């Protein structure tokens, strides 16, 4: 099968297999599927990122240009501003590059940049094509970061605050519970573990109204702590840490007790450092969830000054019309931290999911 | 603890137990309270007991196949949407995830790269996912640009009910498929290679290998992944809320969206109806979670 392709030197390496066996049709099917998948998974995001570097005018073009482009301009003697360049084909078929001085209806007044002294002449605009070049424009980002009294900065701050604080508390609280449930034998430990795992059955979507009541009784509506407190205990986190701590030998703890170390010191100085790999997995999942949280913040945080990035992004089109350039820049910025994290921690994250089934 | 100190473990457990009591266990009871009381007051003391009236209101229907005859037609439309959305989305997603996992489990080049590409949308927030596809699907967007260059007319992708529904399925599959792919891939990798070697000796066809070896051995993992996907699919809200706002009309409104609208977004806030709808959703999730826990315990699969 596919003999021709296999023997052609340029692509032969693709068909090479570890066992030295030649590729069969299932291999080609596999590669075809995977390459198609790369396009479908990657292209949409790449498109957003590329679009975020386009100018306002470039964004409005249809059909859209693939790469961000800007009008090519030239300085012409006798004119203050740089003039946009056009490729003009005259009726006799001669192609020239001209600079547009101004446009009146379907006619444009143009000047030859090489011979400005020849003066301005009229050109039909349908015989002229604007010259463009690849240009990465950062104005969407600068406009976004400078806009409306810096609301974007407060959204960034809010998201970072929630993510960092909630993750820190999650790690401490969950590992304390995991320590109790793995290193002590006591009446009621089974019930406690069951109670914690039972919260798996109670996702926020099911208890939205009561959570809102409790948060408002605590006077935490429109307060960042109102979206932190309800989510800091994660049953999967406790379970993961407990399973890991079970593998830490009890002899270590006994030796420390001989030396009259306090129970807290044993937890803090012995068990916690040894549980670092499990803590890392829990931290990664917590950061991912808190950065991306949407429903709970949507219910609890109703004022622009307490908006998270996700809320600001989702609500962006409501204010003063849709400014696509800034919306795209904001989408890119919101996705960037986790995308970078993924680039470096890819193996860790995927192993974590594969071995726990949690996110 | 041997030293008679029974307080210490409880001290370590205390913060966690306090939080889950306050934000998970008590809310279940409070939810029941809300579901049997009326008025738009948030504070329990100011609410009046109405018995099962909220449930009756939600379930009251002239004809269950015709949402317009129901007293809360939006609820029934969201239930109807979910009944179509959940099976479609889960089957498509698990099917694609399985195909991808099998492709990634083969002896291929650049496996890490391909795996990363299929997985990375899982890292994107639901809002980013929705914004990305809104940008592609808008009237002057990339998809219409491609259609235009092929000589077709522009299509309004999200303002037609049936197209918006299909895109809701597609976008949620696109965003979450990688998660299930990774779990299934781990399941595939735990199948001993010598079984496949033996099948090769016997010159079994790829299809036969798939149906007689891969599927049966993957069944426990597949089942867990399937139920996990159902549990998440029933609760779908974020992506679709931003992508279509539940529209056009009610074409893509899901149950959580109904709860959010009823309890928070529309005035006056009807906490009682929202809580009653939540409890029904909770009952469905309870059944699936219980099944999942049972399978994980007996099958030894992850979950």
The main pleated sheet of chain A reads as: 6 strands, antiparallel
Overall 3D form of chain B? globular
Mean pLDDT of chain B: 88
Number of strands of chain A: 8
Largest interface, with counts of residues having CB < 8 Å to the other chain, equals:
A-B, 96 and 99 residues
**Could you report the average pLDDT of chain A, rounded to the nearest whole number?**
85
- As a whole number of angstroms, the C-alpha radius of gyration of chain B is 24 Å
Strand order of the largest sheet of chain B: 1-2
| Main pleated sheet of chain B | 2 strands, antiparallel
Strand content of chain B: under 5%
H/E element sequence of chain B: HEEHHHHHHHHHHH
The number of helical elements of chain A comes to 16
Radius of gyration of chain A: 31 Å
Helix content of chain A: 55-70%
Q: Give the number of DSSP strands of chain B.
A: 2
Descriptive report:
The complex is a heterodimer of chains A (359) and B (303). In chain A, helix 3 (25-52) crosses helix 16, helix 5 packs across helix 16 (324-356) and helix 6 (151-183) crosses helix 10. Chain A contains 16 helices and eight strands. The model of chain A is unreliable at 1-9 (pLDDT under 50). In chain A, the strands form two sheets. In chain A, strands 2, 3, 4, 5, 6 and 7 form a six-stranded antiparallel beta sheet that branches. Chain A is elongated and about 100 Å long. The longest helix of chain A has 33 residues, at 151-183. Chain A is 56% helix and 10% strand. Chain A is α+β, with helices and mostly antiparallel strands. Chain A has helices at 3-7, 12-15, 25-52, 56-59, 139-146, 151-183, 189-198, 208-217, 225-228, 235-245, 250-258, 263-274, 276-292, 295-300, 309-315, 324-356; strands at 69-71, 73-74, 83-89, 95-104, 107-111, 121-124, 128-130, 132-134. Chain B has helices at residues 7-35, 53-59, 73-105, 111-119, 126-137, 142-149, 161-189, 193-201, 206-234, 238-243, 255-265, 271-299, and strands at residues 37-38, 48-49. In chain B, strands 1-2 form a two-stranded antiparallel sheet. Chain B has 303 residues and is mainly α. The model of chain B is unreliable at 299-303 (pLDDT under 50). The two termini of chain B are 31 Å apart. In chain B, 70% of the residues lie in helices and 1% in strands. Chain B is built from twelve helices and two strands. Chains A and B meet through helix 3, helix 6, helix 7, helix 8 and helix 13 of A and helix 1, helix 3, helix 4, helix 5 and helix 6 of B.
